[in-house]
Amino acid sequence: MSFYLTTPIYYVNGEPHLGHVYTTVAADVVARHMRQRGEDVFFLTGTDEHGEPVAQAAEREGVPPRELADRNAERFKRVAERVNATNDFFIRTSDEEHKAVVTEVVARMKENGHVYEGTYEGWYCPRCADFKTDSELIEGDKCPIHLIVLEREKEDNWFFRLSHFQERLEQLYADNPAWVLPPNRYNEALSFIKGGLRDFSLSRARISWGVPVPWDPEQVVYVWVDALFNYYTALSYAREGEDLTERFWPASLHVIAKDILKFHAVFWPALLMAADLEVPRRIFIHGYLLMDDHKMSKSLGNVLDPFHVMDLYGTDALRYYLLREVAFGQDGSISPESFEARYNTELANTYGNLASRALAMIGRYRDGTVPDAAPSAELAAEFEGLPDRVCELLDGVQVSAALDEIWQRARRLNRYVQDETPWQLAKEPDQAEHLDQVLAGVAEGLRVVSVLLHPWMPESAEKLLAALGREDRSLEHAQFGTGAGGAQISELGQLFPKVEASEPPEASAA
To answer: CB within 8 A of 71, min separation 6: which ones?
Structure first.
Protein backbone atom coordinates (compact mmCIF):
# COMPACT_ATOMS: atom_id res chain seq x y z
CA MET A 1 0.00 0.00 0.00
CA SER A 2 1.37 3.43 -0.92
CA PHE A 3 1.87 6.19 1.63
CA TYR A 4 2.80 9.69 0.42
CA LEU A 5 3.91 12.12 3.12
CA THR A 6 5.04 15.75 2.87
CA THR A 7 6.41 18.56 4.96
CA PRO A 8 5.66 22.13 3.89
CA ILE A 9 8.29 23.52 1.61
CA TYR A 10 10.42 26.02 3.49
CA TYR A 11 10.85 29.61 2.44
CA VAL A 12 14.36 30.57 1.35
CA ASN A 13 14.24 34.22 2.40
CA GLY A 14 15.98 33.13 5.64
CA GLU A 15 18.17 30.37 6.99
CA PRO A 16 16.81 27.18 8.60
CA HIS A 17 16.01 27.21 12.32
CA LEU A 18 14.62 24.81 14.89
CA GLY A 19 11.01 25.37 13.84
CA HIS A 20 11.84 23.89 10.44
CA VAL A 21 13.68 21.00 12.07
CA TYR A 22 10.64 20.30 14.26
CA THR A 23 8.30 19.76 11.31
CA THR A 24 10.84 17.73 9.34
CA VAL A 25 11.66 15.41 12.24
CA ALA A 26 8.00 14.77 13.05
CA ALA A 27 7.26 13.90 9.43
CA ASP A 28 10.34 11.69 9.29
CA VAL A 29 9.15 9.73 12.34
CA VAL A 30 5.89 8.94 10.54
CA ALA A 31 7.73 8.02 7.33
CA ARG A 32 10.13 5.69 9.14
CA HIS A 33 7.29 4.07 11.07
CA MET A 34 5.29 3.45 7.90
CA ARG A 35 8.33 1.82 6.31
CA GLN A 36 8.57 -0.42 9.39
CA ARG A 37 5.02 -1.53 8.60
CA GLY A 38 6.07 -2.45 5.08
CA GLU A 39 4.27 0.44 3.35
CA ASP A 40 5.44 1.80 0.00
CA VAL A 41 6.50 5.24 1.30
CA PHE A 42 7.37 8.42 -0.55
CA PHE A 43 8.50 11.30 1.66
CA LEU A 44 8.84 14.81 0.22
CA THR A 45 10.37 18.01 1.54
CA GLY A 46 11.93 21.02 -0.15
CA THR A 47 12.03 24.78 -0.56
CA ASP A 48 9.61 27.50 -1.62
CA GLU A 49 11.68 29.94 -3.67
CA HIS A 50 9.48 32.42 -5.51
CA GLY A 51 7.54 35.52 -4.53
CA GLU A 52 8.04 38.93 -3.05
CA PRO A 53 9.68 37.94 0.28
CA VAL A 54 12.54 36.20 -1.55
CA ALA A 55 12.89 39.03 -4.09
CA GLN A 56 13.02 41.60 -1.28
CA ALA A 57 15.52 39.59 0.77
CA ALA A 58 17.76 39.24 -2.29
CA GLU A 59 17.50 42.96 -3.00
CA ARG A 60 18.57 43.77 0.56
CA GLU A 61 21.66 41.60 0.07
CA GLY A 62 22.35 43.02 -3.37
CA VAL A 63 22.18 39.61 -5.09
CA PRO A 64 19.81 38.12 -7.69
CA PRO A 65 16.90 36.08 -6.24
CA ARG A 66 18.28 32.93 -7.88
CA GLU A 67 21.59 33.30 -6.01
CA LEU A 68 19.82 33.68 -2.67
CA ALA A 69 17.55 30.72 -3.44
CA ASP A 70 20.46 28.50 -4.44
CA ARG A 71 22.40 29.34 -1.30
CA ASN A 72 19.57 28.82 1.17
CA ALA A 73 18.12 25.78 -0.58
CA GLU A 74 21.45 24.05 0.01
CA ARG A 75 21.24 24.96 3.68
CA PHE A 76 17.80 23.39 3.97
CA LYS A 77 19.06 20.28 2.20
CA ARG A 78 21.93 20.01 4.66
CA VAL A 79 19.55 20.42 7.60
CA ALA A 80 17.41 17.53 6.35
CA GLU A 81 20.52 15.40 6.01
CA ARG A 82 21.86 16.47 9.39
CA VAL A 83 18.69 15.49 11.27
CA ASN A 84 18.72 12.13 9.45
CA ALA A 85 15.51 12.79 7.53
CA THR A 86 14.78 10.00 5.05
CA ASN A 87 13.05 12.14 2.42
CA ASP A 88 12.92 10.52 -1.00
CA PHE A 89 13.11 13.82 -2.86
CA PHE A 90 13.91 17.46 -2.21
CA ILE A 91 11.85 19.75 -4.43
CA ARG A 92 12.71 23.32 -5.30
CA THR A 93 9.98 25.48 -6.81
CA SER A 94 12.57 27.02 -9.09
CA ASP A 95 12.94 23.61 -10.77
CA GLU A 96 11.96 23.89 -14.42
CA GLU A 97 9.97 20.65 -14.15
CA HIS A 98 7.90 22.09 -11.32
CA LYS A 99 7.24 25.33 -13.16
CA ALA A 100 6.11 23.44 -16.26
CA VAL A 101 3.47 21.48 -14.36
CA VAL A 102 2.28 24.57 -12.45
CA THR A 103 1.83 26.33 -15.80
CA GLU A 104 -0.25 23.43 -17.14
CA VAL A 105 -2.41 23.14 -14.00
CA VAL A 106 -3.09 26.88 -13.74
CA ALA A 107 -4.09 26.96 -17.43
CA ARG A 108 -6.47 24.05 -16.77
CA MET A 109 -8.06 25.94 -13.90
CA LYS A 110 -8.71 28.90 -16.19
CA GLU A 111 -10.12 26.63 -18.92
CA ASN A 112 -12.47 25.19 -16.28
CA GLY A 113 -13.83 28.67 -15.62
CA HIS A 114 -12.32 29.25 -12.18
CA VAL A 115 -10.06 32.23 -13.02
CA TYR A 116 -11.04 35.79 -13.94
CA GLU A 117 -9.49 39.27 -14.18
CA GLY A 118 -10.05 41.85 -11.45
CA THR A 119 -8.62 44.37 -8.97
CA TYR A 120 -7.63 43.60 -5.38
CA GLU A 121 -7.19 45.98 -2.50
CA GLY A 122 -6.28 44.96 1.04
CA TRP A 123 -3.71 44.64 3.82
CA TYR A 124 -0.65 42.77 2.56
CA CYS A 125 2.12 41.13 4.60
CA PRO A 126 5.24 40.69 2.46
CA ARG A 127 6.69 38.13 4.86
CA CYS A 128 3.58 35.94 4.80
CA ALA A 129 3.04 36.72 1.10
CA ASP A 130 -0.61 36.98 2.06
CA PHE A 131 -3.39 39.55 2.11
CA LYS A 132 -4.97 39.92 5.57
CA THR A 133 -8.56 40.77 6.45
CA ASP A 134 -9.33 43.47 9.01
CA SER A 135 -10.27 40.79 11.55
CA GLU A 136 -6.90 39.07 11.18
CA LEU A 137 -4.86 42.15 12.09
CA ILE A 138 -3.74 42.89 15.62
CA GLU A 139 -3.55 46.32 17.21
CA GLY A 140 -1.71 48.88 15.11
CA ASP A 141 -2.57 47.23 11.78
CA LYS A 142 0.09 44.58 12.41
CA CYS A 143 0.53 41.07 11.05
CA PRO A 144 -0.32 38.65 13.90
CA ILE A 145 2.58 36.38 12.93
CA HIS A 146 5.43 38.73 12.05
CA LEU A 147 4.30 41.68 14.19
CA ILE A 148 5.09 44.21 11.45
CA VAL A 149 2.87 47.14 10.45
CA LEU A 150 1.04 46.45 7.18
CA GLU A 151 -0.02 48.85 4.45
CA ARG A 152 -3.03 48.64 2.16
CA GLU A 153 -2.17 47.74 -1.42
CA LYS A 154 -4.13 47.79 -4.65
CA GLU A 155 -3.35 45.73 -7.73
CA ASP A 156 -4.89 44.55 -11.01
CA ASN A 157 -4.41 40.82 -11.43
CA TRP A 158 -6.07 37.45 -11.99
CA PHE A 159 -8.41 35.96 -9.39
CA PHE A 160 -9.29 32.44 -8.33
CA ARG A 161 -13.01 31.81 -7.69
CA LEU A 162 -12.61 30.41 -4.19
CA SER A 163 -16.15 31.47 -3.33
CA HIS A 164 -17.52 28.94 -5.85
CA PHE A 165 -16.14 26.11 -3.72
CA GLN A 166 -17.93 27.06 -0.50
CA GLU A 167 -20.44 24.19 -0.59
CA ARG A 168 -17.95 21.61 -1.85
CA LEU A 169 -15.51 22.42 0.93
CA GLU A 170 -18.22 22.28 3.58
CA GLN A 171 -19.25 18.88 2.20
CA LEU A 172 -15.62 17.70 2.23
CA TYR A 173 -15.41 18.50 5.93
CA ALA A 174 -18.80 16.95 6.70
CA ASP A 175 -17.84 13.72 4.96
CA ASN A 176 -14.36 13.52 6.50
CA PRO A 177 -14.35 14.52 10.20
CA ALA A 178 -10.68 13.49 10.53
CA TRP A 179 -9.57 15.18 7.31
CA VAL A 180 -7.84 17.89 9.32
CA LEU A 181 -6.19 16.96 12.62
CA PRO A 182 -6.15 17.70 15.50
CA PRO A 183 -9.88 18.42 16.00
CA ASN A 184 -9.40 22.02 17.12
CA ARG A 185 -7.67 22.78 13.80
CA TYR A 186 -10.50 21.06 11.92
CA ASN A 187 -12.95 23.34 13.72
CA GLU A 188 -10.82 26.40 12.99
CA ALA A 189 -10.63 25.63 9.27
CA LEU A 190 -14.32 24.81 9.02
CA SER A 191 -15.19 28.03 10.85
CA PHE A 192 -13.12 29.98 8.34
CA ILE A 193 -15.00 28.32 5.48
CA LYS A 194 -18.43 28.87 7.02
CA GLY A 195 -17.56 32.51 7.61
CA GLY A 196 -17.80 32.99 3.87
CA LEU A 197 -15.05 32.50 1.27
CA ARG A 198 -13.74 35.37 -0.81
CA ASP A 199 -11.98 35.03 -4.14
CA PHE A 200 -8.24 35.64 -3.94
CA SER A 201 -5.52 36.82 -6.28
CA LEU A 202 -4.03 34.07 -8.41
CA SER A 203 -1.27 36.32 -9.74
CA ARG A 204 0.95 39.24 -8.84
CA ALA A 205 1.69 42.04 -11.29
CA ARG A 206 4.55 43.95 -9.71
CA ILE A 207 7.17 41.23 -9.34
CA SER A 208 8.94 39.01 -11.88
CA TRP A 209 10.48 36.33 -9.62
CA GLY A 210 8.05 33.48 -10.08
CA VAL A 211 6.20 31.30 -12.59
CA PRO A 212 4.80 33.44 -15.45
CA VAL A 213 1.03 33.29 -15.87
CA PRO A 214 0.72 31.28 -19.11
CA TRP A 215 -1.87 33.58 -20.75
CA ASP A 216 -0.42 36.81 -19.27
CA PRO A 217 3.38 36.56 -18.96
CA GLU A 218 3.64 40.09 -17.55
CA GLN A 219 2.36 38.61 -14.27
CA VAL A 220 3.55 35.69 -12.15
CA VAL A 221 1.51 33.03 -10.39
CA TYR A 222 0.81 33.94 -6.76
CA VAL A 223 3.54 32.31 -4.71
CA TRP A 224 1.14 30.31 -2.55
CA VAL A 225 -0.53 28.74 -5.60
CA ASP A 226 2.89 27.98 -7.06
CA ALA A 227 4.06 26.54 -3.73
CA LEU A 228 1.04 24.40 -2.88
CA PHE A 229 1.19 22.55 -6.17
CA ASN A 230 4.70 21.29 -5.31
CA TYR A 231 3.08 18.32 -3.59
CA TYR A 232 1.59 17.31 -6.93
CA THR A 233 4.34 18.38 -9.34
CA ALA A 234 7.17 16.59 -7.48
CA LEU A 235 5.78 13.16 -8.29
CA SER A 236 6.11 13.79 -12.03
CA TYR A 237 9.89 14.17 -11.95
CA ALA A 238 11.25 13.00 -8.57
CA ARG A 239 12.64 9.86 -10.19
CA GLU A 240 14.30 10.25 -13.54
CA GLY A 241 12.31 8.67 -16.34
CA GLU A 242 9.41 7.71 -14.08
CA ASP A 243 6.13 9.46 -13.24
CA LEU A 244 5.01 8.51 -9.73
CA THR A 245 1.76 10.47 -9.78
CA GLU A 246 -0.57 7.55 -10.36
CA ARG A 247 1.25 5.47 -7.75
CA PHE A 248 1.21 8.03 -4.92
CA TRP A 249 -1.40 10.72 -5.59
CA PRO A 250 -3.38 11.86 -3.65
CA ALA A 251 -1.05 12.58 -0.74
CA SER A 252 -1.71 10.46 2.33
CA LEU A 253 -0.60 13.14 4.79
CA HIS A 254 0.55 16.75 4.78
CA VAL A 255 2.33 17.81 8.00
CA ILE A 256 2.29 21.60 8.46
CA ALA A 257 2.42 24.29 11.13
CA LYS A 258 -0.66 26.24 12.17
CA ASP A 259 0.40 29.54 10.58
CA ILE A 260 -0.31 28.08 7.13
CA LEU A 261 -3.59 26.37 8.04
CA LYS A 262 -5.73 28.59 5.78
CA PHE A 263 -3.65 27.85 2.71
CA HIS A 264 -3.58 24.08 3.19
CA ALA A 265 -6.98 23.38 4.73
CA VAL A 266 -9.02 25.85 2.64
CA PHE A 267 -7.19 27.14 -0.45
CA TRP A 268 -5.41 23.90 -1.32
CA PRO A 269 -8.42 21.55 -1.62
CA ALA A 270 -10.30 24.21 -3.63
CA LEU A 271 -7.36 24.62 -6.03
CA LEU A 272 -7.23 20.86 -6.53
CA MET A 273 -10.96 20.68 -7.17
CA ALA A 274 -10.61 23.47 -9.72
CA ALA A 275 -7.92 21.47 -11.52
CA ASP A 276 -9.95 18.22 -11.40
CA LEU A 277 -7.48 16.58 -9.02
CA GLU A 278 -8.12 14.51 -5.90
CA VAL A 279 -7.66 16.21 -2.54
CA PRO A 280 -5.17 14.81 0.01
CA ARG A 281 -6.31 12.15 2.45
CA ARG A 282 -5.33 14.04 5.60
CA ILE A 283 -3.64 17.18 6.91
CA PHE A 284 -2.05 17.37 10.36
CA ILE A 285 -1.46 20.84 11.77
CA HIS A 286 1.01 21.21 14.61
CA GLY A 287 1.56 24.08 17.00
CA TYR A 288 4.53 26.30 17.68
CA LEU A 289 7.70 25.81 19.62
CA LEU A 290 7.78 28.81 21.93
CA MET A 291 10.59 30.72 23.56
CA ASP A 292 9.82 33.86 25.55
CA ASP A 293 6.10 33.28 24.79
CA HIS A 294 6.61 33.76 21.04
CA LYS A 295 6.77 31.36 18.11
CA MET A 296 10.38 30.51 17.38
CA SER A 297 11.31 32.72 14.46
CA LYS A 298 14.46 34.05 12.87
CA SER A 299 12.83 37.45 12.47
CA LEU A 300 12.19 37.64 16.22
CA GLY A 301 15.66 36.40 17.11
CA ASN A 302 14.53 33.74 19.60
CA VAL A 303 16.08 30.61 18.17
CA LEU A 304 17.52 27.54 19.89
CA ASP A 305 20.44 26.64 17.64
CA PRO A 306 19.84 23.07 16.39
CA PHE A 307 23.37 22.67 15.04
CA HIS A 308 24.93 23.51 18.37
CA VAL A 309 22.62 21.06 20.12
CA MET A 310 23.48 18.28 17.67
CA ASP A 311 27.19 19.02 17.87
CA LEU A 312 27.16 18.62 21.65
CA TYR A 313 24.50 15.99 22.26
CA GLY A 314 23.93 14.19 18.97
CA THR A 315 21.10 14.21 16.45
CA ASP A 316 18.99 11.59 18.21
CA ALA A 317 18.89 13.68 21.37
CA LEU A 318 17.47 16.65 19.47
CA ARG A 319 14.92 14.49 17.63
CA TYR A 320 13.79 12.95 20.91
CA TYR A 321 13.54 16.23 22.78
CA LEU A 322 11.47 18.04 20.17
CA LEU A 323 8.78 15.36 20.15
CA ARG A 324 8.93 14.62 23.87
CA GLU A 325 8.88 18.09 25.39
CA VAL A 326 5.86 19.45 23.48
CA ALA A 327 2.78 17.36 22.67
CA PHE A 328 2.70 17.31 18.90
CA GLY A 329 -0.23 19.39 17.71
CA GLN A 330 -0.08 21.86 20.58
CA ASP A 331 1.97 24.96 21.30
CA GLY A 332 4.64 24.42 23.93
CA SER A 333 7.66 26.06 25.47
CA ILE A 334 11.19 24.78 25.05
CA SER A 335 14.44 25.91 26.60
CA PRO A 336 18.09 24.92 26.91
CA GLU A 337 17.42 23.95 30.55
CA SER A 338 14.55 21.59 29.74
CA PHE A 339 16.60 20.01 26.96
CA GLU A 340 19.45 19.31 29.34
CA ALA A 341 17.07 17.82 31.92
CA ARG A 342 15.47 15.48 29.36
CA TYR A 343 18.86 14.44 28.09
CA ASN A 344 20.28 13.58 31.49
CA THR A 345 17.26 12.02 33.21
CA GLU A 346 15.62 10.20 30.30
CA LEU A 347 18.13 9.54 27.54
CA ALA A 348 21.30 9.09 29.56
CA ASN A 349 19.69 7.39 32.57
CA THR A 350 16.39 5.73 31.68
CA TYR A 351 17.47 4.36 28.29
CA GLY A 352 21.25 4.60 27.98
CA ASN A 353 22.13 3.49 31.51
CA LEU A 354 19.59 0.65 31.41
CA ALA A 355 21.10 -0.64 28.16
CA SER A 356 24.65 -0.46 29.55
CA ARG A 357 23.69 -2.25 32.77
CA ALA A 358 21.74 -4.98 31.01
CA LEU A 359 24.49 -5.75 28.53
CA ALA A 360 27.13 -5.65 31.24
CA MET A 361 25.19 -8.17 33.36
CA ILE A 362 24.62 -10.51 30.41
CA GLY A 363 28.32 -10.29 29.68
CA ARG A 364 29.37 -10.85 33.27
CA TYR A 365 26.85 -13.50 34.35
CA ARG A 366 26.15 -15.38 31.10
CA ASP A 367 29.34 -14.95 29.07
CA GLY A 368 27.73 -12.53 26.64
CA THR A 369 24.86 -14.78 25.54
CA VAL A 370 21.24 -13.80 26.07
CA PRO A 371 19.70 -16.66 28.10
CA ASP A 372 17.23 -18.88 26.26
CA ALA A 373 14.53 -18.44 28.87
CA ALA A 374 10.93 -17.26 28.76
CA PRO A 375 10.50 -13.78 30.28
CA SER A 376 8.10 -13.51 33.17
CA ALA A 377 4.40 -13.38 32.34
CA GLU A 378 4.11 -10.24 34.44
CA LEU A 379 6.71 -8.41 32.36
CA ALA A 380 5.26 -9.72 29.09
CA ALA A 381 1.85 -8.36 30.10
CA GLU A 382 3.34 -4.86 30.33
CA PHE A 383 4.18 -5.04 26.62
CA GLU A 384 0.94 -6.64 25.47
CA GLY A 385 -0.57 -4.75 22.54
CA LEU A 386 2.17 -2.12 22.47
CA PRO A 387 2.95 -2.26 18.72
CA ASP A 388 -0.75 -1.99 17.87
CA ARG A 389 -1.15 0.96 20.21
CA VAL A 390 1.84 2.73 18.63
CA CYS A 391 0.36 2.14 15.17
CA GLU A 392 -3.02 3.47 16.29
CA LEU A 393 -1.47 6.65 17.66
CA LEU A 394 0.72 7.26 14.63
CA ASP A 395 -2.25 6.73 12.32
CA GLY A 396 -3.55 9.87 14.05
CA VAL A 397 -0.09 11.52 13.80
CA GLN A 398 0.15 11.57 17.59
CA VAL A 399 3.92 11.27 17.51
CA SER A 400 4.44 12.50 21.08
CA ALA A 401 1.77 10.24 22.57
CA ALA A 402 3.21 7.23 20.70
CA LEU A 403 6.67 8.08 22.02
CA ASP A 404 5.29 8.25 25.56
CA GLU A 405 3.71 4.79 25.19
CA ILE A 406 7.11 3.36 24.29
CA TRP A 407 8.92 5.33 26.97
CA GLN A 408 6.63 4.00 29.67
CA ARG A 409 8.05 0.54 28.90
CA ALA A 410 11.61 1.81 29.16
CA ARG A 411 10.79 3.11 32.63
CA ARG A 412 9.08 -0.18 33.48
CA LEU A 413 12.22 -2.10 32.53
CA ASN A 414 14.24 0.08 34.88
CA ARG A 415 11.83 -0.68 37.72
CA TYR A 416 11.95 -4.37 36.85
CA VAL A 417 15.74 -4.43 37.14
CA GLN A 418 15.59 -2.59 40.46
CA ASP A 419 12.90 -4.93 41.81
CA GLU A 420 14.55 -8.17 40.66
CA THR A 421 18.13 -7.21 41.66
CA PRO A 422 19.94 -9.52 39.20
CA TRP A 423 23.26 -8.63 40.88
CA GLN A 424 21.96 -10.32 44.01
CA LEU A 425 20.52 -13.30 42.14
CA ALA A 426 23.93 -13.89 40.56
CA LYS A 427 25.35 -14.56 44.03
CA GLU A 428 22.88 -17.38 44.69
CA PRO A 429 23.41 -20.57 42.65
CA ASP A 430 19.84 -21.78 43.27
CA GLN A 431 18.53 -18.64 41.57
CA ALA A 432 20.22 -19.34 38.22
CA GLU A 433 16.96 -20.00 36.38
CA HIS A 434 15.39 -16.89 37.85
CA LEU A 435 18.42 -14.87 36.78
CA ASP A 436 18.12 -16.28 33.25
CA GLN A 437 14.48 -15.22 33.19
CA VAL A 438 15.28 -11.70 34.38
CA LEU A 439 18.16 -11.17 31.94
CA ALA A 440 16.17 -12.60 29.05
CA GLY A 441 13.21 -10.36 29.93
CA VAL A 442 15.29 -7.21 30.11
CA ALA A 443 17.06 -8.01 26.83
CA GLU A 444 13.73 -8.69 25.13
CA GLY A 445 12.18 -5.54 26.53
CA LEU A 446 15.11 -3.46 25.35
CA ARG A 447 14.86 -5.06 21.92
CA VAL A 448 11.14 -4.25 21.59
CA VAL A 449 11.59 -0.71 22.89
CA SER A 450 14.46 -0.11 20.48
CA VAL A 451 12.58 -1.44 17.45
CA LEU A 452 9.66 0.85 18.25
CA LEU A 453 11.92 3.80 19.10
CA HIS A 454 13.79 3.53 15.83
CA PRO A 455 11.72 6.17 13.99
CA TRP A 456 12.49 8.72 16.72
CA MET A 457 16.11 7.81 17.47
CA PRO A 458 17.40 5.77 14.53
CA GLU A 459 21.12 5.90 15.30
CA SER A 460 20.80 4.97 18.98
CA ALA A 461 18.21 2.26 18.36
CA GLU A 462 20.36 0.66 15.67
CA LYS A 463 23.40 0.67 17.95
CA LEU A 464 21.50 -1.02 20.75
CA LEU A 465 19.84 -3.58 18.49
CA ALA A 466 23.23 -4.44 17.01
CA ALA A 467 24.70 -4.80 20.51
CA LEU A 468 21.84 -7.14 21.41
CA GLY A 469 22.53 -9.22 18.32
CA ARG A 470 19.01 -8.51 17.01
CA GLU A 471 19.11 -6.00 14.17
CA ASP A 472 15.70 -6.61 12.54
CA ARG A 473 13.65 -3.46 13.02
CA SER A 474 10.46 -4.30 11.09
CA LEU A 475 7.27 -3.82 13.03
CA GLU A 476 6.33 -7.49 12.87
CA HIS A 477 9.34 -8.13 15.11
CA ALA A 478 8.20 -5.58 17.71
CA GLN A 479 6.02 -8.11 19.55
CA PHE A 480 7.39 -8.98 22.97
CA GLY A 481 8.52 -12.62 23.00
CA THR A 482 9.41 -12.93 19.31
CA GLY A 483 13.12 -12.50 19.97
CA ALA A 484 14.49 -15.91 20.89
CA GLY A 485 17.38 -16.34 23.29
CA GLY A 486 20.89 -17.32 22.33
CA ALA A 487 21.95 -14.04 20.75
CA GLN A 488 25.52 -12.94 21.31
CA ILE A 489 25.83 -9.42 22.66
CA SER A 490 28.58 -7.02 21.68
CA GLU A 491 30.13 -3.82 22.96
CA LEU A 492 27.75 -0.86 23.08
CA GLY A 493 29.57 2.05 24.66
CA GLN A 494 27.61 5.00 26.00
CA LEU A 495 24.54 5.80 23.96
CA PHE A 496 24.14 9.21 25.57
CA PRO A 497 27.36 10.24 27.28
CA LYS A 498 27.24 12.91 29.93
CA VAL A 499 27.96 16.40 28.64
CA GLU A 500 29.70 18.91 30.86
CA ALA A 501 27.30 21.40 32.45
CA SER A 502 29.57 24.20 31.25
CA GLU A 503 28.42 23.45 27.70
CA PRO A 504 24.61 23.87 27.72
CA PRO A 505 22.70 23.98 24.45
CA GLU A 506 22.57 27.59 23.36
CA ALA A 507 19.71 29.87 22.61
CA SER A 508 20.92 31.84 19.63
CA ALA A 509 19.72 34.90 17.81
CA ALA A 510 21.96 34.10 14.87
So the answer is: none
Q: For 25-53, how does the pLDDT look when each residue is reduced to its tens digit (9 = 90+)?
A: 999 999 999 999 999 999 999 999 998 88
Element (H, E) at 80: helix 65-82
Q: CATH number of the domain that 342 lies in?
A: 1.10.730.10
Is residue 340 domain-resident? yes
Asked whether residue 432 is assigned to any structural domain, the reply reads yes
Q: Which has the closest alpha carbon to 459: 298, 300, 351?
A: 351
Domain final position from 249, 270, 286: 286
Task: Give per-residue pLDDT as tens, 338-384.
Answer: 999 999 999 999 999 999 999 999 999 999 999 999 999 999 999 99
Task: Looking at the structure, tell me whether residues 282 and 340 fall in a common domain.
Answer: no
Q: How many contiguous H segments (helices) and E segments (strands) does the chain have?
A: 21, 18
309 found inside a domain: no
Q: What residues contact 136, with CB distance under 8 A and at least 6 apart?
A: 123, 144
Mark whether 276 and 339 lie in a shared domain.
no
pLDDT tens track for 192-237: 999 999 999 999 988 889 999 999 999 999 999 999 999 999 999 9
Sign of torsion, CA 209 214 219 221?
A: negative
128 and 173 in contact (C-beta within 8 Å)? Answer: no
Q: Does residue 433 lie within any of the structural domains?
A: yes
Q: How far apart are CA 478 and CA 346, in angstroms?
A: 22
Q: Which residues are catalytic?
A: 17, 20, 125, 128, 143, 146, 295, 298
Number of domains in the chain: 2
| Residues shown for the chain | 510
Cα distances from 280 to residues 40, 83, 168, 354, in angstroms, run 17, 26, 15, 42
